[in-house]
Amino acid sequence: EKLSESLKLPVVSFFGIADQDFTDDRWVKSAFLPDVERRDGVLELRIDLPEKLMLNKVAKPSRRVLDGWGNKVKGWFTRKLISVERSFKSLGVEFSRQNTGVTENFEFFWRIVEESFEKARTYSDFNAFVMSKIVNVAWGYDTIFSRFSECQQIFEPEFCFLLSHAEEYSRYVKEATASETKGGVYEYEYETIPFWYHCDCGSKVRLIREQKDDLLIGRGECLRCRKNYTLDFSSKRNPEISEFLPRISARSISMPLIFFGGLKVCCYVGGVGGKEYLRQAKYVAEHMGTTFPPVVVWRPRDIYLGIGQSEALMTFRKISGTFNLSQYPATEARLEKEIASVQKEIDKLEAQKKELASDGEAEKTEIIKRMKAVSARQHEIRRETSFSSLARNPKLIQNVRAVMHLYPSIIDYAVNVGLGSTSKQWITFLKGNRRLSTNVHLETSFDDSVQLVKTKFGNE
Question: Which of 85, 165, 209, 377 has a Cα at 20 to 30 A from 361?
Answer without folding.
Answer: 377
